[in-house]
């Protein structure tokens, strides 16, 4: 990843201009009333339907160009907007518009000398977001920023730029303007230059926080660059769901969860590592292999020539793969999930409550599931609102799906009683 000093002047100027415009417009959103904010989101939902043809046409061009350069099936799936996905985007906007706003101020306690302590919630100001071939994230992130009253600078890769531009110009911006909120509060970097991402995470005086959506080394590198320049990040760099099939598992449920967990291969919370109790391994393996084969998934069986938690979704050549391994106990399964994977999500299939509790207590990752799929680790599916990303940091603060309620700063105010 290139340092900002080596970034082409035109790219740096484009990102800085977007950040400057967003910061200038930020008070318009920060001071907007709840009705105006929710009205803007509702208008965006309505405009998604009105702009359907333009959005789908732009997306078809993006997908066509991506196929021309050999984009993998998983990434193509992320890039594609269908009629069904478009309606889902609109529904998420409607739900977000109806969601309650967090308290802006709450009483904490009385202090000596006739004073009292109030905790206030304030917007960050301007928040950046970097994501690649996911045009729907344009609306997801923009809507979360609007609901939390933060201005934003969005940067996407060249593959999704055409779709994202239409979504900003025909959905987000007019929705804001309809409610007399300055449309400049949400900016989309117009440059397809990959170095725009590096520029975005180095403008601490304009964009103090950047959401990094994506996977792999490039996202981790952006996080390192941001740290060097005093920019905080909410990063989602790695994923890979784990499913442990216990000796007390219902075999039908196991097959069902495997199927459900592999409905999309290019997402972070798909099934990546399948662990089977050794007592059931031999008897279950053939049937499980048949289930994978029906999905077009190849198994990676012991002995493995790769790390046990290798994330197949990031491997364009072999993304249709699941790693399989026997384990001796739920404790070993949880340990492997903790130590060999990113810690995104793990699930157990068992009919034994004590075993489930043992596994769920031992697993320290972001989401843990009993007889349920790791695909549920998603802001909309879990919390009923879109997400800006899934944070897997082992630090205090927002962890798991990050939504509008997390995008704020705490301020203490002491006032007379």
Task: Walk me through the structure.
By secondary structure, the protein is an alpha/beta fold. It folds into two domains: 4-238 and 398-416, Aldehyde Dehydrogenase, Chain A, domain 1, CATH 3.40.605; 241-379, Aldehyde Dehydrogenase, Chain A, domain 2. The protein contains 14 helices and 16 strands. The strands form four sheets. The chain has a six-stranded parallel β-sheet with strand order 10-11-9-8-12-13, sandwiched between helices. A five-stranded parallel β-sheet has the order 5-4-3-6-7, with helices on both faces. Helix 6 runs parallel beside helix 7. The longest helix is centred in the first third of the chain and has 22 residues, at 9-30.
Main sheet, how many strands, which sense, barrel? 6 strands, parallel
Total domain count? 2
Strand content: 15-25%
Beta strand count: 16
In CATH, what is the class of the largest domain? Alpha Beta
Entry keywords:
5-stranded parallel β-sheet; 43% helix; 6-stranded parallel β-sheet; 2 domains; Aldehyde Dehydrogenase, Chain A, domain 2; 417 residues; single chain; Aldehyde Dehydrogenase, Chain A, domain 1; alpha/beta; 14 helices
């Amino acid at each position: 990843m290139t340092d900002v000093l080596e970034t082409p002047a035109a790219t740096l100027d484009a990102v800085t201009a977007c950040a400057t415009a967003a910061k200038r417009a930020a008070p318009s959103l920060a001071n907007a009333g709840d009705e105006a904010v929710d009205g803007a989101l509702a208008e965006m939902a309505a405009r998604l339907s009105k702009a359907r043809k333009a959005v789908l046409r732009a997306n078809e061009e993006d997908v066509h160009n991506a196929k021309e350069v050999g984009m993998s099936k998983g990434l193509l799936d992320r890039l594609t907007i269908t009629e069904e996905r478009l309606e889902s985007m609109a529904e998420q906007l409607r739900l977000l518009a109806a969601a309650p706003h967090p308290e802006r101020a709450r009483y904490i306690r009385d202090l000596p000398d006739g004073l009292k302590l109030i905790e206030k919630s304030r917007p960050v100001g301007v928040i950046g977001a970097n994501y690649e071939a996911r045009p729907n994230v344009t609306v997801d992130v923009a809507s979360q920023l609007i609901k939390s009253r933060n201005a934003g600078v969005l940067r996407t890769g060249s593959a999704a730029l055409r779709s994202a531009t239409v979504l900003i110009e025909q959905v987000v911006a007019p929705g804001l303007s309809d409610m007399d909120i300055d449309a400049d509060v949400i900016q989309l970097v117009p440059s397809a230059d990959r170095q725009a991402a590096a520029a975005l995470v180095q403008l601490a005086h304009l964009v103090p926080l950047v959401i990094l959506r994506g996977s792999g080394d490039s996202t981790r590198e952006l996080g390192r660059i941001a740290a060097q320049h005093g920019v905080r990040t909410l990063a989602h760099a790695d994923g890979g769901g784990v499913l442990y099939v216990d000796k007390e598992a219902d075999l039908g449920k196991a097959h069902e969860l495997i199927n459900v967990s592999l409905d999309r291969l290019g997402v972070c919370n798909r099934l990546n590592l399948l662990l089977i109790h050794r007592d059931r391994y031999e008897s279950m393996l053939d049937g499980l292999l048949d289930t994978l084969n029906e999905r077009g998934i190849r198994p990676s069986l012991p002995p493995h020539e790769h790390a046990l938690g290798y994330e197949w979704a990031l491997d364009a050549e072999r993304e249709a793969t699941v790693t399989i391994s026997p384990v001796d106990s739920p404790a070993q399964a949880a340990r492997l999930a903790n130590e060999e994977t990113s810690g995104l999500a793990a699930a157990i299939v068992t009919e034994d409550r004590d075993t489930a509790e043992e596994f769920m207590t031992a697993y320290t990752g972001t989401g843990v599931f009993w007889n349920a799929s790791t695909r549920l680790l998603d802001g909309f599916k879990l919390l009923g609102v879109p997400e800006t990303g899934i944070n897997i940091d082992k630090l205090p603060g927002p962890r798991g799906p990050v939504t509008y309620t997390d995008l704020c700063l705490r301020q203490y105010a002491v006032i007379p009683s």
